[in-house]
Amino acid sequence: MTTIGIYYGSSTGYTEEVAKLIQQECERLQLGSTTLLNVYDHDLRDMEAYDKLILGVPTWNIGEMQEDWDKRLAQFAKLDLQGKHVALFGLGDEIGYPDTYQDALGMLAQHVRARGAILVGYWTTTGYTFAASLAVEGDHFVGLALDDITAPHLTEARITQWVQQVAAEFGMTPPAPVSTVST
């Protein structure tokens, strides 16, 4: 069975709630065994044991990394994630901080790539209102970009679509439904 580690940093609880929704969607799709882990409470070396990773980070203040992630980057820099598929999600405020929207997501992507991982789960910038972001490459974010401050009504639908996309990019397909028709 495939194992998926969902790691997140959360100061206000928003990113934790999103991580829980992502875990629920993974479980609904029966993608394997998912474990939800706060980076503050867990040894990041355990990331190496998971088959796939989903990492979440909110952007703080004016384009800053969330403090739990920031404190753990030295440990993260020692990981061997060579060839591991990693999907990212981030939270930010596109209206309040349009010049640094999702910057922490972009910073985390740089750290993940430096560890040899393969990023999956790029998300279109279409439909977002912001001026600049370190998380944008071409016309996509390096992961799922969410705004639970000014666009919370879009969160659940975006998660549902993104998890399905990530599952395909992870090379995982949900099991076929069991037929209830008797012959």
Topology diagram in text:
Layout: E1 3-8, H1 14-28, E2 33-38, E3 52-60, E4 64-65, H2 67-76, E5 85-91, H3 103-114, E6 118-120, E7 123-124, E8 136-137, E9 140-141, E10 144-146, H4 155-169
Parallel strand pairs: 1-2, 1-3, 3-5, 5-6, 5-10
Antiparallel strand pairs: 3-4, 7-9, 8-9
Report on the structure:
By secondary structure, the protein is α/β, with parallel strands linked by helices. It has one domain: Rossmann fold (3-Layer(aba) Sandwich). The protein is built from 4 helices and 10 strands. Strands 1, 2, 3, 4, 5, 6 and 10 form a 7-stranded mixed sheet that branches. Strands 7-9-8 form a 3-stranded antiparallel sheet, with no helix packed on it. Strand 8 and strand 9 form a beta hairpin. Helix 1 packs across helix 4. The C terminus is likely disordered.
Task: Explain briefly what this protein structure is.
Helices cover 28% and strands 23% of the residues. The chain is of the alpha/beta class and 183 residues long. The chain has one domain: Rossmann fold (3-Layer(aba) Sandwich).
Provide keyphrases for this structure.
183 residues; Rossmann fold; seven-stranded mixed beta sheet; 10 strands
- The CATH class turns out to be Alpha Beta
Rg (C-alpha, Å): 16 Å
Q: Biggest sheet, open or closed, and with what strands and sense?
A: 7 strands, mixed
Which topology does CATH recognise?
Answer: Rossmann fold
The helix content, as a percent range, equals: 25-40%
Mean pLDDT over the residues? 93
Helix and strand pattern: EHEEEHEHEEEEEH
Under the CATH scheme, which architecture would be assigned? 3-Layer(aba) Sandwich
- Principal-axis shape equals globular
The CATH homologous superfamily: Flavodoxin domain
The computed structural class is alpha/beta
